[in-house]
Q: What sequence folds into this?
């Protein structure tokens, strides 16, 4: 089958899919019913059922960029020290080798590797379990190339914008503020000042429609260096912002801090 036919597998839709960023927090959210999981479930309201879901998770970092291309991705339990109940969870959504192949043709910025080993890690299934509990929508994961800077990731995300017209829901899964070294277990409902500062700064910048300061997050000062000590949980947000069109509606959900230094803020664009 030639490239043109591959790109026609998912025809353009009348309605453009939104773009989501989910602050996923603890893996335990997968087996709990709380204000955050309720917020995730609400994100599907008003959205036509996707033809496929592409998730960019903080928990799959690679040298190069890969997309899961198997027909039946496994549920990866990429954590330790949690109750057996969490390890028993299976999210048996199908994959889509055809969509993975189309994505390979769509992306020009890098050579996309079709992966048949990874699967769905908890950054994906712990969230989708609440948004689409029936697990009847094909799900693919796109990896984060840890060798590339934030600007590169944002530009790659822009190449994914066509997917929104083809019924593919793109979901970034991470946390705007994510510093596990400073967790406050004694006062879990109180946020550090620097964490609140960065969370608010990021929200205001998203509303402004100018992503450049967020792409250059390392220049935002000491608060940002504490809130984003490593990039993997922050970069999925840039993938969501890379899909944003001018004047699109922005909605924030679960806008709350946990354990002092984890932002559960989620974003729905469009």
A:
């Amino acid at each position: 089958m030639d490239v043109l036919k591959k790109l026609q597998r998912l025809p353009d839709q009348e309605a453009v899919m939104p773009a989501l960023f989910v602050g996923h927090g603890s893996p335990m959210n997968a087996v709990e019913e709380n204000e955050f999981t309720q917020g995730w479930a609400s994100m599907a309201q008003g959205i036509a059922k996707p033809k496929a879901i592409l998730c960019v998770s903080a928990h799959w970092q690679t040298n190069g960029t890969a997309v899961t291309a198997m027909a039946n991705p496994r549920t990866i339990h990429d954590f330790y020290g949690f109750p057996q109940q969490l390890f028993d969870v299976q999210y048996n959504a199908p994959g889509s080798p055809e969509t993975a192949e189309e994505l390979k043709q769509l992306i020009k910025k890098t050579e996309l590797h079709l992966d048949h080993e990874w699967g769905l890690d908890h950054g994906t299934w712990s969230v989708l379990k609440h948004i689409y509990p029936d697990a009847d929508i094909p799900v693919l994961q796109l990896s984060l190339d840890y060798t590339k800077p934030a600007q590169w990731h944002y530009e790659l995300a822009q190449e994914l914008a066509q997917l929104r017209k083809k019924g593919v829901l793109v979901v970034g899964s991470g946390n705007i503020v994510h510093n596990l070294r400073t967790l406050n277990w004694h006062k879990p409902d109180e946020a550090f000042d620097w964490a609140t500062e960065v969370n608010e700064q990021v929200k205001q910048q998203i509303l402004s429609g100018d992503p450049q300061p967020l792409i250059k997050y390392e220049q935002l000062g000491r608060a940002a260096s504490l809130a984003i000590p490593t990039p993997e949980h922050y970069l999925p947000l840039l993938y969501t912002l890379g899909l944003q069109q001018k004047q699109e509606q922005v909605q924030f959900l679960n806008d709350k801090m946990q354990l002092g230094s984890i932002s559960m803020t989620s974003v729905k664009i469009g």
Q: What stands out?
A: Confidence is low (pLDDT under 50) at residues 1-7. The radius of gyration is 18 Å. The chain has one domain: 3-269. Residues 6 and 102 are 6 Å apart (CA to CA).
